Amino acid sequence: MRLIPWLLVLFTTSSQAFSYEISFDCGGTGGFVDGRVFAADTAYPGSEGAGFLSGFVATPSPNASFGGPFQPPSICSKYRRGDFSYQFDVPNGDYAVTLYFTEYQFHGPGLRQFSLRLNRSVQEAEFDIWERSRMYYAFSARYIVQVTEGEITASFGSPAETALLAAISVQDIQDDGLPPTAPANVMAIGSYGAVNLSWDLPTEINACGVTVHRSTSATGPFDQVAVRTDLAPFWVDQDVVVGTTYYYQLTTTGLYGNESLLSNMVSASVLGTDESTLP
Questions:
Q1: How far apart are the C-alpha atoms of 197 and 83, rounded to whole Å?
Q2: How far is the C-alpha of 101 from the C-alpha of 120, rounded, in Å?
Q3: CB atoms inside a 10 Å sphere around CB 263
């Protein structure tokens, strides 16, 4: 068994037909994301040789308002929390394991950190939901797992039992040799001491990360300034100089390590604290 540690964000779908696909609404009774069915949370082995081992159900405030282009409330009403794992009995082969998260309780970094392991291999020692997407903004992290012993075990834990998971999905995949598509509709907005970038996520199952390339000239050269090891559709560039115009292009990373073509180029100028576009 070999693990390739690439992460994804945001609940995305793919047109690929899967011979193995199972998704759980962790702690919940089932739901949908972009047409994908998430089954009610089930204790292992369930009827499909898959389900959770230990942990407990956590419920956020009914007044919580979640963001994200995938409209997540259907699978964000309850969570599995604590020290827990999910096990899937699967044929040997390659699988995409997608983990869905939102932070509904804490308002800063370092307050909810937990380990993430796939088949006993530590992928993240201090996974921090808030640090990746702040509060009430749903995202997902995707890994490829190459199975040789007939099972996938995803384990989550922390000393304070604060590990939290909204949903989990496992799908078999194959390397078709094709890179994912580039992020679409990239936008850049200059703000006070920063540039805010946003984009539409690729939908392929092999998409797992986004790299930001930046230049001070439309003709380049472009330098790599950020790597999101997930597919959250935003990034804030704070390493900037007031009054400077920056140009950006993005690429998508695939689970098998290939990279997309460059996205459309966008630009924005950094504002000083004494500047305003308001009337």
A1: 35
A2: 21
A3: 22
More confident residue, 255 or 72: 255
> Reduced to 3 states, what is the DSSP secondary structure of residue 273?
coil
User: Where does residue 185 fall: left (phi above 0), alpha (psi -120 to 50 degrees), or beta otherwise?
Assistant: left
Across the beta sheet with 56-58, the strand order is 56-58, 79-81, 164-165
- Residue 208 forms beta bridges with which residues? none
Write the single-letter amino acid at 8. L
Q: How far apart are CA 167 and CA 39, in angstroms?
A: 10
pTM of the model: 0.85
Tell me which residue of 205, 175, 171, 200 sits closest to 187, measured CA to CA: 200
The string of pLDDT tens digits covering residues 154-184 is: 999 987 788 999 999 999 999 999 999 999 9
CB 20 within 8 A of CB 149: no
